[in-house]
Amino acid sequence: MTKSKTMTGAILPGNSTVEFREFAVPTPGPGQVLVQMKASSICGSDVRAIYRAHTGKGDEGYRPGTVAGHEPSGQIVEVGPNCKEFKVGDRVILYHISGCGCCDDCKEGYMISCHNEHRAAYGWQRNGGHAPYLLAEENTCIHLPDNLTYLDGALIACGFGTAWEALTRMRTGGRDRLLITGLGPVGLAAGILGRALGVSEIIGLDTSAARMDMAKKFGAVDLAITSDGEALDKIKALTGGKGCEVSIDCSGVGPARALALKGTRQWGRCAFVGEGNDIQFDVSPFLIHPQITLFGSWVTSLGHMTELTERLSRWDLHPDKTVTHRFKLEETGEAYRVAAEGQSGKVAIVFE
Ligand SMILES: [Zn+2]
Ligand SMILES: [Zn+2]
């Protein structure tokens, strides 16, 4: 393969801008592969913890100068020594956290929860997808089936994986109504996947009329309600006074998160996946007495991301339908500006 020696990558200086820097095109070492990027989408976490300011700490700490982008998908163009499964030409999704591979969490496939000092997330502590090539650990690659697009792959790498994990952990299925608070990209994913899992009725809440319309258009919700002081009464009215068996907060905003919990039916399950902020609610009437099971769920595991990928392929269901804005790498600044406005569907960088 002839590859150029250098490439341009996008970094996030933390002042609501994007800068470009030259990087050496990496050569894969043992157990590593070089992935030519085809799609690299933008996540709410990038905007929240890196783009506006470097507020992230620990696992969400951004190493300044790192190529951004933690939702990468592409094609392997070079493999290092001792790779066991993947070869040149393979289409791959990157599970976006490289864990130590040896701790209990890594062995369960939850590299997201690895506490080893060698844990590093693509786009946070090691170079990510906003560049023509990404150096990846082979054990973070997931095969992307031929009938899924690279954009599908990028969306599975974080947002759809996150929604899948919470929904399946709550054993969401055909007996359930689903309540979604926050109709950004993860909320859309929750609705689309919830329906695929058999949910018959989906109620979505947001404060943005544009996002409510989009969710209906994508078939992610049956009904969209404005998230305000009357929303809980409306949820109850729509569900015979009972609430939804399953609810998921994808907003990361306190009042909406509380609505997800309060809109959950007695004996129901509620998951928080939207990050940041806090929540205040009276524990007895809203959690203990209604016998609610409350889940915190962070991203997903390698195994469950693989499972999701297989199901999407089998169902011919395409996450990429939620992409409303596509930009070239050199337009990454504009891409982040649009994503940060919080009115769009998914925003993605695509490569020719
Ligand atoms: Zn993400
Ligand atoms: Zn580990």
Task: Report on the architecture of this protein.
- With 352 residues, the chain is an alpha/beta fold.
- Helices cover 28% and strands 26% of the residues.
- The protein is built from ten helices and 17 strands.
- The chain has helices at residues 44-51, 104-107, 150-169, 185-196, 209-217, 231-238, 254-262, 283-288, 302-315, 332-341; strands at 6-11, 19-24, 32-41, 72-79, 91-94, 97-98, 120-121, 133-137, 141-143, 177-181, 201-206, 223-226, 244-249, 264-272, 293-296, 323-327, 346-350.
- Strands 3, 4, 5, 8, 9, 16 and 17 form a seven-stranded mixed sheet that branches.
- Strand 10, helix 4 and strand 11 (201-206) form a beta-alpha-beta unit.
- Helix 3 packs across helix 4 (185-196) and helix 3 (150-169) crosses helix 9.
- The longest helix is centred in the middle third of the chain and has 20 residues, at 150-169.
- It starts with 5 loop residues before the first strand and ends with a strand.
- The model has no long low-confidence stretch (mean pLDDT 97).
- Bound molecules: zinc ion (2 copies).
- One zinc ion is lined by residues 99-100, 102-103, 105-106, 114, 116.
